[in-house]
């Protein structure tokens, strides 16, 4: 097996606030292969965002290392695309200028960055909105813009922290299909945090299940459902059994288990 | 059909739930209040009427000596004095002198204050060290420093500018610093996740985020800069509207006091308009 695209090696995180130590992550280790779509699920407060912050180099871990392409990347920034839990679009920039922010920071001139990004906006459902300001967009569109900003970077790995958490069910399922389309086009390695087990199964190749705080990976599931996936896949037996296995980890009792 | 449907539902024996009778027995439903809007012409007409009534009332009250015209002066006399003020003497030298000090003080104070406030973003330690000094300087009544400022900077333009700067600087600094502290830490995270340098973060996030805070200070600073310049002239000066006012007061030329004050408020208004225009222009996206 080739070396992992992204590897997390016994990562640990301890916060000390006002004397009391809070263990957010107890040694977490996993490796992800190139081009895969991996979801991370776990109860609120189990350290998912903390894990992402460490991988993105925004927070030094208290132990362990992050490896990208087998190379130590702990504490280096700008190597992975990271979409935080909020969309964080800058209100004084138009949609197009928000999307090109990452390219601009990497030294691409704004003119060139705009020219590069514009076709993507048109292709991925933001056509005609490039000169609008974020406040004029719907929640789904804001998420699209924030996602495009994350994807239009020269990084192979993308971390998405609950990108659809605040959307209604209908918009959410449209966005899931949109994301799968975009993932198929860009061929990036995606790590995706969600609270929604069904979403995780529908989108992923693999699912990492984390325990309540202090977080660690308690199970790793492979989703073998064929791609491209239609919505109806949610009715298949494989889908349901995967979903139930996840729910069991998260402490939900399913009818089968009660029986 | 609807009624029969409702009557089919069995009624509870205890009777219908009644809301406790804290309200008036039969509430009178209010309509959405829609404020009446006058036309622009009507508003201007009323404004003119107010001015005419005030001036007319003043004139009449002075003529009938309901108020003492010696202390209060009267519009007709102010008008005469104004004509003399602008045709004889060096009105324009005085106006120019005060305006120059005000504008210079305003620009220097606002820019230096904003720069100082922004500079606190660069180092937390430096900000922590500077903080008590800024607060201390803020709490000093700056006007009390005027005699000292005149001694140090002389009776010329410099001391008036210094007074205007002293008044505007601190407000700009504190407001800009408040803006700096309000920059969203998650946005900073976003920038760093994209691999941004401190400088990129400063230029592309901090400055645009703080700009509205700095702009909000501009209007206040016009008044403060004018006050600084005038007080500087009160203490000691050879020119300026402030000196004119002081001199007129000392010689009981109340009409001249009024003339100078009116000229001052006219220019204060001009500056407001200029600043409003500048604000609009800056907000529109000079900084992106
Ligand atoms: N800067 C910090 N200082 C102290 N404790 C922190 C800090 N950041 C996070 N924590 C703690 O670490 C734990 C994990 O937080 P984290 O934000 O990673 O959870 P999460 O899994 O992303 O939760 P959610 O699903 O609600 O977003 C929480 O218990 C939190 O209180
Ligand atoms: Mg989180």
Write the SSE topology:
The complex is a heterodimer of chains A (259) and B (288).
Chain A: E1 6-17, E2 20-32, E3 37-41, H1 48-55, E4 63-68, E5 71-72, E6 81-83, H2 95-99, H3 101-105, H4 110-123, H5 139-151, E7 157-161, H6 169-186, E8 189-193, H7 197-203, E9 206-210, E10 217-222, H8 237-249, H9 255-258
Parallel strand pairs in A: 3-8, 3-9, 6-7, 7-8
Antiparallel strand pairs in A: 1-2, 1-4, 4-5, 9-10
Helix pairs in contact in A: 7-8
Chain B: H1 2-8, H2 40-63, H3 69-72, H4 75-87, H5 91-119, H6 124-139, H7 146-153, H8 157-181, H9 185-193, H10 198-235, H11 241-250, H12 254-283
The structure holds adenosine-5'-triphosphate (ATP) and magnesium ion (MG).
Word description of this protein:
The complex is a heterodimer of chains A (259) and B (288). By secondary structure, chain A is of the alpha/beta class. Chain A has a domain at 1-73 and 189-253: P-loop containing nucleotide triphosphate hydrolases (Rossmann fold), CATH 3.40.50.300. Chain A contains nine helices and ten strands. In chain A, the strands form two sheets. A six-stranded mixed β-sheet of chain A has the order 6-7-8-3-9-10, sandwiched between helices. In chain A, β7 (157-161), α6 (169-186) and β8 form a beta-alpha-beta unit. In chain A, α7 crosses α8 (237-249). Chain A starts with 5 loop residues before the first strand and ends with a helix. The mean pLDDT of chain A is 90. In chain B, α4 packs across α12, α10 packs parallel to α11 and α10 runs antiparallel to α12 (254-283). Chain B folds into two domains: 41-69; 73-287, MetI-like (MetI-like fold, Orthogonal Bundle). Chain B has helices spanning 2-8, 40-63, 69-72, 75-87, 91-119, 124-139, 146-153, 157-181, 185-193, 198-235, 241-250, 254-283. At the A-B interface, α3 of A face α9 and α10 of B. Magnesium ion (MG) binds next to α1 of chain A.
């Amino acid at each position: 097996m080739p070396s992992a695209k992204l590897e997390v090696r016994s990562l640990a995180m301890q916060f000390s606030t006002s004397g009391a130590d809070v263990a957010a992550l107890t040694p977490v280790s996993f490796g992800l292969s190139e081009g895969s779509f991996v979801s991370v699920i776990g109860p609120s407060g189990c350290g998912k965002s903390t894990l992402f912050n460490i991988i993105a180099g925004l927070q030094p871990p208290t132990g362990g290392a992050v490896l990208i392409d087998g190379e130590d990347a702990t504490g280096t920034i700008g190597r992975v695309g990271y979409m935080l839990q909020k969309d964080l679009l800058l209100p004084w920039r138009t949609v197009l200028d928000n999307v090109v922010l990452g390219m601009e920071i990497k030294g691409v001139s704004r003119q060139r960055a705009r020219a590069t990004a514009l076709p993507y906006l048109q292709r991925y459902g933001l056509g005609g909105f490039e000169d609008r300001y974020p406040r004029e967009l719907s929640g789904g569109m804001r998420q699209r813009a924030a996602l495009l900003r994350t994807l239009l970077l020269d990084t192979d790995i993308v971390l998405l922290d609950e990108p659809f958490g605040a959307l209604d069910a209908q918009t959410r399922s449209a966005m899931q299909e949109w994301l799968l389309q975009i993932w198929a086009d860009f061929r990036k390695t995606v790590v995706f945090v969600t609270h929604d087990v069904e979403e995780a199964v529908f989108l992923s190749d693999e699912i990492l299940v984390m325990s309540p705080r202090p977080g660690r990976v308690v199970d790793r599931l492979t989703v073998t459902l064929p791609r491209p996936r239609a919505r109806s896949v949610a009715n298949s037996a494989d889908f349901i059994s995967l979903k139930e296995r996840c729910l069991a980890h998260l402490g939900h009792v399913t009818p089968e288990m009660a029986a | 059909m609807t009624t029969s449907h409702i009557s089919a539902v069995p009624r509870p024996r205890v009777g219908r739930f009644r809301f406790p009778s804290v309200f008036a027995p039969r509430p009178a439903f209010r309509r959405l209040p829609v404020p009446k809007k006058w036309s622009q012409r009507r508003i201007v007409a009323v404004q003119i009427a107010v001015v005419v009534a005030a001036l007319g009332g003043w004139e009449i009250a002075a003529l009938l000596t309901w108020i003492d015209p010696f202390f209060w002066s009267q519009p007709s006399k102010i008008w005469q004095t104004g004509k003399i003020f602008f045709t004889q003497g060096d009105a324009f030298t005085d106006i120019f002198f005060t305006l120059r000090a005000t504008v210079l003080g305003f620009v220097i104070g606002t820019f230096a204050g904003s720069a100082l406030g922004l500079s606190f973003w660069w180092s937390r330690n430096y900000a922590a060290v500077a903080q008590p000094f800024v607060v201390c300087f803020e709490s000093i009544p700056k006007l009390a420093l005027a005699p000292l400022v005149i001694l140090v900077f002389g009776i010329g333009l410099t001391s008036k500018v210094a007074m205007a700067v002293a008044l505007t600087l601190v407000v700009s600094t504190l407001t800009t610093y408040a803006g700096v502290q309000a920059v969203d830490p998650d946005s900073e995270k976003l920038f760093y996740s994209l691999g941004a340098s401190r400088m990129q973060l400063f230029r592309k996030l901090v400055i645009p985020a703080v700009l509205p805070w700095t702009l909000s200070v501009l209007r206040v600073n016009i008044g403060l800069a004018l006050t600084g310049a005038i007080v500087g002239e009160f203490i000691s000066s050879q020119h300026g509207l402030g000196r004119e006012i002081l001199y007129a007061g000392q010689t009981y030329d109340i009409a001249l006091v009024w003339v100078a004050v009116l000229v001052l408020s006219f220019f204060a208004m001009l500056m407001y308009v200029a600043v409003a225009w500048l604000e609009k222009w800056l907000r529109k996206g000079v900084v992106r």
